[in-house]
């Protein structure tokens, strides 16, 4: 799996097509795609950037579970925390999306250091949602990237 940058609008459009209810897409954003050979198999969009608060929202989609490798995770979170100086990232997830490529998304995010906050009606009158938050401190402490953090600060 090969993460790549520099095609923000194309990757953001691909991600929006793969997220139910995201027809409006994303306004100003950055995006990271993930290639499996020549095929785009995953993307992460960084949007709703609030530099005054050091917070950015991330949204993603994938068509295979194989995309989520440690090097891809490193790229995904080195950008907000080291690249643009975020102190926290947020991810919104519908309660109906409890499974992510056969894995429990909440379980995966918790293992990575995210905190889960349930918001009634976040996705409309009949659909609750979760906001997952990950601080830079929790990201550095999660143990997934000791080698990369030691080499890159």
Automatic annotation (TrEMBL):
The record lists the organism as Mesorhizobium retamae
Top-down, what is the taxonomic lineage of the species of origin? Bacteria, Pseudomonadati, Pseudomonadota, Alphaproteobacteria, Hyphomicrobiales
Gene3D superfamilies from the UniProt entry: 3.40.630.30
This chain's protein is named N-acetyltransferase
């Amino acid at each position: 799996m090969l993460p790549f940058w520099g095609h923000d609008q194309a990757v953001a459009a691909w991600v929006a097509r793969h997220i139910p209810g995201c027809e409006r897409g994303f306004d100003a954003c950055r995006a990271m795609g993930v290639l499996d050979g020549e095929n785009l198999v995953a993307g992460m969009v960084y949007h709703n950037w609030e530099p005054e608060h050091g917070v950015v929202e991330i949204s993603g989609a994938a068509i295979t579970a194989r995309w989520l490798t440690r090097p891809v995770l490193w790229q995904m979170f080195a950008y907000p925390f080291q690249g643009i100086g975020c102190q926290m990232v947020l991810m919104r997830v519908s309660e109906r999306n409890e499974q992510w490529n056969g894995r429990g998304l909440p379980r995966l995010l918790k293992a990575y250091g995210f905190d889960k906050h349930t918001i009634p009606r976040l996705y409309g009158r009949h659909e609750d949602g979760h906001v997952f938050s990950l601080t830079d401190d929790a990201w550095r402490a999660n143990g997934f990237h000791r080698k990369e953090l030691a080499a890159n600060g």
